[in-house]
Amino acid sequence: MIKTERYGKGDFLKTSADDYSDALRKSVTVKNGDISLTVAEYGATILSLKFKEKEMTLGYDDTEEYKKQDGYLGATVGRFANRIANGEFYLNGKRYGLYKNDGNNTLHGGKVGFNAVLWDLSVKGNAIIAEYESKDMEEGFPGNLKVKVEFSVNADGIEISYMATSDKDTVINLTNHTYFNLAGRAENIENHYLTLFADGFTPIDSGLIPTGEIKGVKGTPFDFMEPKLIGKDINAEDTQLIRAGGYDHNFVINGAGYRKFAEVYCKASGIKMQCFTDMPGVQFYSGNFLTERKGRNGETIKKRHGFCLETQFFPNSVNEPAFPSCVLRAGEVFTAKTGYKFV
Ligand code: GAL
Question: Which residue, by CA, sits nearest to atom 8 of ligand 1?
């Protein structure tokens, strides 16, 4: 069954309700070559990313699950992805207080982050475009922020381009929270080989907030400079791993500009994913907090059934002047780009 609906500024968008019933109700699918991408207006969420008909991401059957469940599956995350210590920051000498939704800290934009708002969807050529206007002081952040996220669907992968402008100085950190599983189904990801082109990472305290230090990965479980099974060191007696229940750390990506930052390989499916970004950091999250839940097509999703590679400014960079700056000045244009390519 094909449904046709009109969205915001968009044209008529065709969505197929065959696959995931209600989950596709307000979403759009674009196909190109080996890739099929479905994005929902709720949270500009990636509902599905298929390579050669194989599902590469975790998801739910029903849109309602995205609203009810934690985990941010597939979501566009903002205005400030990852954690802000003590739910506050200072900008231009002024204190901004935020909603603390993660212990004493703010996580992924606060109470109602960009993952939980409705975006305007449209299609331009092979791209799905999601737009949202975040009001001045929404979730405590200054400035009316216009955000545009363009999901380009290429024949072998997707590229996510972020653009934002604000009418007041503000802070920004946008990412996508897709859980990948290159096996093509929900199952433990410890058997995936990961290469991360990062000589350093930002160690965390017990609240998962970076201590401010950048630590070399050499000789630690965080060394993924050569392909290594995610499961190889994940249960090591290492304070950093114990604090997060596995990997949940920001890696400092080597180099600058749009560059390859990771490769992931699943032997069982033979699928490899190459990851690119122009951002300085990436949160490698091994799905440690994924409690058991019902996923797409009745699959059971459990702890470590997916991994995320969330490109970003470093967590809590609002409060760490030595970290790359996440400040967006009034009138300036913020851009960022991340790509996931399959071979
Ligand atoms: C990740 C974060 C994890 C966890 C997860 C959502 O981005 O690093 O600590 O909060 O989101 O469950």
Answer: 248
Beta pairing class for 327-328 and 145-153: unpaired
Asked if residues 224 and 192 have their Cβ atoms less than 8 Å apart, the reply is no
Atom of ligand 1 nearest to the CA of 72: 6
pLDDT band at residue 11 using 50, 70 and 90 as cut-offs: very low
What pLDDT, on the 0 to 100 scale, is given for residue 14?
Answer: 36
Residue 93 CA neighbour count, 13 Å, CB half: 0
User: Given ligand 1 and candidates 243, 289, 309, which is best to mutate, with the most ligand atoms within 8 Å of its CB?
Assistant: 289
Dihedral sign from CA coordinates of 204, 209, 214, 218? positive
What is the distance in A from the centroid of ligand 1 to the CA of 290?
A: 9
Pick the catalytic residue from 108, 177, 192, 249: 177
Atom in ligand 1 nearest the alpha carbon of residue 102 = 10
Distance 286 CA to ligand 1 centre (A): 9
Strand ranges for 217-342 from DSSP E: 228-229, 248-252, 259-266, 271-277, 281-285, 293-294, 300-301, 308-312, 327-328, 333-342
Residue 193 has pLDDT above 50, yes or no: yes
d(CA 196, CA 227): 8
pLDDT digits (tens, 9 = 90+) for 323-333: 999 999 999 99
Q: Which residues contact 239 (CB under 8 A, 6 or more apart)?
A: none
Tell which atom from ligand 1 comes closest to the C-alpha of 81. 7
